[in-house]
């Protein structure tokens, strides 16, 4: 495989609104990030992905952009961002911006002009359709946030526009070459600023199945999942290849796609050598337990399912390209709360989960707060405590399925995206040291117990474990093996154990005992060295290794 500058890197996702507030308005901002660059450098971070900070009404927290060339004043100014890019670069950290181009905001100039003149040039930047009787919609697709994906075009009773996400996020019409040209111009404008690349939002949605048509309803609302349309939409590759040619490839930029529903045959095109993207996220665990009925019907995820999903996805891309590995992101509950049994959740098991994913082939992404073991909220008393625009749909779908109000809130407690969006817990001071005033979203009440300050000086802390992991990946003695080594799952017949081998010039095995029970395993060859473990004394001899509950061991053979 041709080596690329991003292959051995460790990435970190910042959700700016919740990372660090520098000016006491309760909202995280760019200057807050600048102030934490040394912290991130020290943690071993090379690539920093910022969730959107562009000008936005924040209907979907910045994923609704009203000006691609400006910064929202709540996050700071363009000068602040230039300073962040420069100061990060000096520390060897590349800034990755979020590229949200499936849709923009309904407050973007383009959409305003489209409303003024739907038949004019900007009308063709969107999907605007006739709806003469005000009732018969072009399709019965359900938007991702619930309800129909069609909304009346402001000022026109006989027209509707398409939004596969929120109604304040009108979809951009990628079939229109003029729109595509505007997008590429904007991408290059940012790349010229010296950013390292982009995380590409919701990209699989840019290709619609045309002409518009209905699919069989899959819930009582008479609507149908967007998946049905996406399965039949072909030809996205032409757009993606053109975008890569016109932008990323010219700059050798890093690009990581938020790609769902890709077909096996498309993998080389997406992330192979000279693919559309440098990498794409491994969402195999994100999808686990999900039900087409909604989050209230989601199942528990077992340790075997977790392992099998991840390993299968890495085998699927083996020899083709690099996945980007996550435990969680801003769209998911906290991974430690989701993938570890509640009664077993502690520092030891959290480190096990960390080690399990961190040495997989590909690029590890740490989501803010993951490195200190941040957890889901413990209670949600009412909807007013929450913020996310996706919550209402989760709640209403639960109520419609005959859950009580209390049970519906419990569904949100487990699955709401707000779990990952509560402010970063820097210390045990008021508001967790995130802000001097009441933050925009509640602080997780567990901040007295879980916070960075208490972990920095504790050599046994989760934070210091993450530091050891990033250091090991950077150790020149092991980089070749950890970054480019072949990947072989091991002991697949043993339940609740995730074990894999990486081999190149060295052979490294990762053991992750994903349960409270002990396991004794035979060794193929004597262990040379324990490189990392969450256990102080790993018991082994030349023939076998003894793993206690939730032990994680990375060793050299
Ligand atoms: C992506 C983002 C998510 C957002 C959606 C619409 O999935 O990660 O936060 O709501 O796209 O832009
Ligand atoms: Ca602020």
Structural account:
The chain is globular. Helices cover 28% and strands 17% of the residues. The chain folds into 3 domains: 11-102 and 177-463, Glycosidases (TIM Barrel, Alpha-Beta Barrel), CATH 3.20.20; 109-162, Alpha-Beta Complex (Oligo-1,6-glucosidase, domain 2); 486-556, Immunoglobulin-like (Sandwich). The longest helix has 16 residues, at 177-192. With 557 residues, it is of the alpha/beta class. The model has no long low-confidence stretch (mean pLDDT 97). The protein has helices at 30-34, 37-43, 78-90, 109-116, 177-192, 226-232, 236-246, 248-251, 267-271, 303-317, 335-339, 347-358, 391-400, 405-415, 452-456, 462-474, 476-484, and strands at 11-14, 47-50, 54-55, 67-71, 94-99, 128-130, 150-153, 156-162, 197-200, 254-257, 279-281, 322-325, 363-367, 486-490, 497-503, 507-513, 519-522, 529-533, 539-540, 544-547, 552-556. Strand 14 (486-490) and strand 15 (497-503) form a beta hairpin. Calcium ion binds at residues 21-23, 25, 27, 29.
In short:
The chain is α/β, with parallel strands linked by helices and 557 residues long. It contains 17 helices and 21 strands. Strand 11, helix 10 (303-317) and strand 12 form a beta-alpha-beta unit.
């Amino acid at each position: 495989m041709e080596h690329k500058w991003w292959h051995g890197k460790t990435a970190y996702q910042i959700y700016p609104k919740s990372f660090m507030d520098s000016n006491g308005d309760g909202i995280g901002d760019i200057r807050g990030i600048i102030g934490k660059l040394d912290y991130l450098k020290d943690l071993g971070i090379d690539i920093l992905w910022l969730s959107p900070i562009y000008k936005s009404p924040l209907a979907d927290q910045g994923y609704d952009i009203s000006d691609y060339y400006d910064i929202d004043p709540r996050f700071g100014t363009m000068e602040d961002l230039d300073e962040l890019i420069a100061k990060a670069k000096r520390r060897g950290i590349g800034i990755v911006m979020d590229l949200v181009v499936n849709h923009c905001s309904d407050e973007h100039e383009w959409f305003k002009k489209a409303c003024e003149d739907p038949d004019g040039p900007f009308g063709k930047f969107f999907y605007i359709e006739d709806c003469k009787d005000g009732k018969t919609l072009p399709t019965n697709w359900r938007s991702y946030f619930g309800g129909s994906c069609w909304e009346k075009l402001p000022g026109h009773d006989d027209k509707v526009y398409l939004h596969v996400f929120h109604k304040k996020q009108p979809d951009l019409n990628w079939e229109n070459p003029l729109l595509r040209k505007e997008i590429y111009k904007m991408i290059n404008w940012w790349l010229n600023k010296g950013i390292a690349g982009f995380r590409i939002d919701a990209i699989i949605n840019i290709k619609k199945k045309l002409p518009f048509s209905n699919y069989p309803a899959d819930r009582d609302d008479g609507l149908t999942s967007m998946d049905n349309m996406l399965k039949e939409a072909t030809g996205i590759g032409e757009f993606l290849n053109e975008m890569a040619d016109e932008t990323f490839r010219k700059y050798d930029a890093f690009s990581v796609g938020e790609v769902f529903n890709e077909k096996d045959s498309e993998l080389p095109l997406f992330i192979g050598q000279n693919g559309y993207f440098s990498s794409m996220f491994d969402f195999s665990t994100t999808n686990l337990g999900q039900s087409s009925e909604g989050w209230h019907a989601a199942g528990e995820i077992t340790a075997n399912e977790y392992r099998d999903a991840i390993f299968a996805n890495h085998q699927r891309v083996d020899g083709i390209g690099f996945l980007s590995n996550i435990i969680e992101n801003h769209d998911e509950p906290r991974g430690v709360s989701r993938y570890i049994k509640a009664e077993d959740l502690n520092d030891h098991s959290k480190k096990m989960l960390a080690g399990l994913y961190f040495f997989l082939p590909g690029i590890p992404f740490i989501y803010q707060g993951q490195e200190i073991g941040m957890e889901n909220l413990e209670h949600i008393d009412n909807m007013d405590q929450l913020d996310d625009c996706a919550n209402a749909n989760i709640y209403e779908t639960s109520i419609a399925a005959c859950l009580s109000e209390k049970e519906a809130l419990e569904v949100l407690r487990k699955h709401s995206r707000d779990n990952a969006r509560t402010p970063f817990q820097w210390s045990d001071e008021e508001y967790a040291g995130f802000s001097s005033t009441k933050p925009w979203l509640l602080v997780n009440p567990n901040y007295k117990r879980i916070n960075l300050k208490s972990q920095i000086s504790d050599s046994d802390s989760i934070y210091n474990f993450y530091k050891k992991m990033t250091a090991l990946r950077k150790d020149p003695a092991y980089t070749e093996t950890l970054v480019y080594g072949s990947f072989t799952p091991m002991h697949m017949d043993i339940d609740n154990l995730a074990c894999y081998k990486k081999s190149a010039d060295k052979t490294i095995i990762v053991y992750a005992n994903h349960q409270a029970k002990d396991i004794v395993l035979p060794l193929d060859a004597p262990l040379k060295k324990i490189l990392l473990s969450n256990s102080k004394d790993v018991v082994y001899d030349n023939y076998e290794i003894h793993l206690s509950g939730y032990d994680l061991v990375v060793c050299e053979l």
